[in-house]
Each structure stands twice: as structure tokens, then as C-alpha cells.
Amino acid sequence: MPSRFDFFSPPGERPFTPRLARLARGAAGLAALALLVAAAGLLAREAARAGELDAVYARHGNNMPVITNDGDLAVYEGDPGEPAVDCAGLAGPRTMVALVFGQSNAANTVDRGYDATLAVYAWHDGQCKRVHDALPGASSANGSTWSRLGDRIVTSGLYDTVLFVDIARGGSSILNWGAKGGLRALLVETLGALRENGLAPTHVFFHQGEADCYLGLSGKEYASVLQDVLGEVRSRVGEDCDIFVSRASLFLDPVCGDRQSPVCYKSCPAIVAAQTAAADPGTRIFSGPNTDLLVPWFDRNDGYHFTARAADRFAAAWMPLLVRGETSGPTLQ
After folding, report:
1. How many angstroms separate the CA atoms of 159 and 276, rounded?
2. What Rg do the C-alpha atoms of the chain give, in angstroms?
3. Cis previous bond, 134, omega within 30
4. Architecture of domain 67-327 in CATH?
5. Contact present, 246 and 206 (Cβ < 8 Å)
6. What backbone torsions phi and psi does residue 327 show, to the nearest 5 degrees?
7. Which of 69-78, 220-229, 304-313 shows the lowest mean pLDDT across its residues?
8. What is the rounded distance in angstroms from the CA atom of residue 320 to the CA atom of residue 316?
9. Cα–Cα dist 206/243, whole Å
10. pLDDT for 174 beyond 70
């Protein structure tokens, strides 16, 4: 009599088939259940974050700064006498394309400008021009850190060409850049325009926090909005772009007002801690310089903004951070 479990004949396989099918169906069911649990957890976390964000705006939204385009806060449109260059001709693997946003110390407020001498350009309103402070697209019309940094980057050999896209706005809060702020549209539209022009950002530099220290945001509140801002940026620049979050909160208390007195300056360690905690090298988010420490009160020309000496120091502080960011990712061609 042939064995019931004759492995060499098709009939002998039949007793095992229903059991295997049941096991396969069970495994598939468990996998589907695990996916459902994971999806439910993700939705719950997203709902919690949305609730936290709503709570921040409910508490502070009425005090959100009103960003105007007048006087010292006017956006610099660029020197009409400076000839434009072909933006498409600047694109390439040896070109850094850096989006800059935040508040005034990321804009054109340095006392004494700087004319970059190397291949450093600024993009604004679809045009690319050589950088001669101020940078078009950002508020105010004095000098900037970025022109100084551009020369350092090219001199170092890190990149051959640098293109800055500066949309920083003086006096802006993290709330202005967040989901319910008026500057979110500027951020999204700028990134869209760069993509349409074949200028994908390789880097994003964010420097901001003084306004929120003044407004009284807690570290947790600041972190909630910052997470939202960084998530929006990441969704639009892709996974290979390095994002740098500077640490900044120091400001001259207007109630005190004496810019010659160190006791009139205030900072918010909780906000700086939130900025530091945002760094995640595994997702290419890095800490930028800490200007609360790097630029003390006596190196701020009007109590708020960097002197030329401070801007030089700020630019120098970026270099080892940029090199570290590059070594954590693909090698440049």
C-alpha cells in the first residue's frame, strides 16, 4: 500500500495543502492587521500634532507680527544696473543652491555690506545676478552674511558656484512661516519656482527665533511650529537636500531699551533647545551656528542686527558645519 505521505506523487501532497493555505492566509491577515495598526498610529500622531499646532495659533495668533513691505522692512528688489546671467547655466553638480529664510539677521541688516568677488549669485523673481549686497528678495537693503559665506564656500573648493535664494523677512515669527502664517505661501511659491527653473535646492538655511522669544512662545510651542515648517520644506525639496536650523533667540528688550547695557538683552534657552532638538542627521537636518553665543550683545549694531565683524564670524562658523553635512551624504561629482 502506498504511503499516505508519498512525497513523490501529487496525491501525497494534498493533505498538506489546506494546512499551508490556512497558514498563508493567517500570515497575510497578521500583516494586514500590522499595517492597519501602523496606519492608525500615524493618523493619531498627525492628529495630535495638528491639535498642538492649532493650540499654538489659538494662543499666540493674535500677536503674530504683521509683515509689511515698507521702510526698513521693504524687500530689496536688486540693482537694476546689474546684468542678469543665465540661471540654467549656473545649475550643475558643483553648484550650491541655498534657500535662506527666517527673520532680519538672515536678511540684509548687516552694518556694512560685502561684495562677493567669486562665483556667488542671488536668485530673485526669476533672475540670477552676481551678489553685491544687498541680496535681492530679502528685506532691508544693507549687508548680509550670505555674500561673505559664498566667497568662503567657493574658496574652500566645497562648490565652484553658489546661488543664494534669500526670502528672509525682518521681524517675522516662526508663526508667520507656519501653516497659518502669511509667509507660508512665499515659502511654497519660491520652492515651486526654483523647481520649475531647474534649480533644485541643495541646502536650506533657517535663522530665526528672536521674535518668538519676545512673543513668549514656550520651547514646546516653538518646536511644534518648527516641525510643521521643516515638514513642509522637506516635502518640497526632497530627501537629498541638507537643511540647517540655526540657534537664535537673543534680542534687545524694548522695555529696557539701552543697547549699551547687557542687562537689557534677553534670550530664551527653551527656544534654542527646541531648535537644537530639531536636528536629525539621519534625515539630513543639521544644527546651524548658535548666534546667541556667537554674536554677543556688543556685536549688534543697533541692539538687534549683526555688525560686519559678527557677520564675518557667522559666515566662518558655517564652514565646518557644511563640510560635515557633505560628508554625511553622497560624494560630490
Report:
1. 26
2. 26
3. yes
4. 3-Layer(aba) Sandwich (3.40)
5. yes
6. -70, -15
7. 69-78
8. 8
9. 8
10. yes
Residue 28 has pLDDT above 60, yes or no: yes
Asked if residue 205 lies in contact with residue 233, where contact means CB atoms within 8 angstroms, the answer is: no
Whether 107 contacts 311, CB under 8 Å: no
Confidence at residue 6, expressed as pLDDT on a 0 to 100 scale: 47
CA distance to 111, 233, 265, 314, per residue, from 260 (Å): 17, 38, 10, 22
Distance CA 206, CA 175 (A): 14
Helices vs. strands in the chain: H and E counts, helices first: 11, 10
| Alpha-carbon distance values, 279 to 91, 148, 226, 283 (Å) | 28, 25, 11, 9
Adjacent-strand bridge partners of 244: 205, 286
Cell numbers standing for residue 102: 527666517
**What's residue 328's pLDDT?**
62
pLDDT, position 25: 72
51 CB-near residues (< 8 Å, 6+ apart): none
158: nearest Cα among 115, 200, 119? 119
How far is Cα of residue 179 from the mean position of the Cα atoms in its chain? 14
Question: Stretch 110-119: mean pLDDT, rounded?
Answer: 93
Phi, psi of 142 (to 5 degrees): -100, -130
Look up cell 509689511; give the residue.
68
Q: Which of 179, 171, 159, 162 is nearest to 332 (CA)?
A: 159
User: In this structure, are residues 282 and 241 in contact, taking their beta carbons and an 8 Å threshold?
Assistant: no
**HSE value, Cβ hemisphere, 13 Å, CA-based, for 277:** 13
> What letter represents residue 52's amino acid?
E
Domain boundaries, the chain: 17-61, 67-327
Please give the order of strands across the beta sheet that includes 95-102: 84-85, 127-130, 120-124, 161-166, 95-102, 203-207, 242-247, 285-290
| Chain centroid to CA 325 | 14
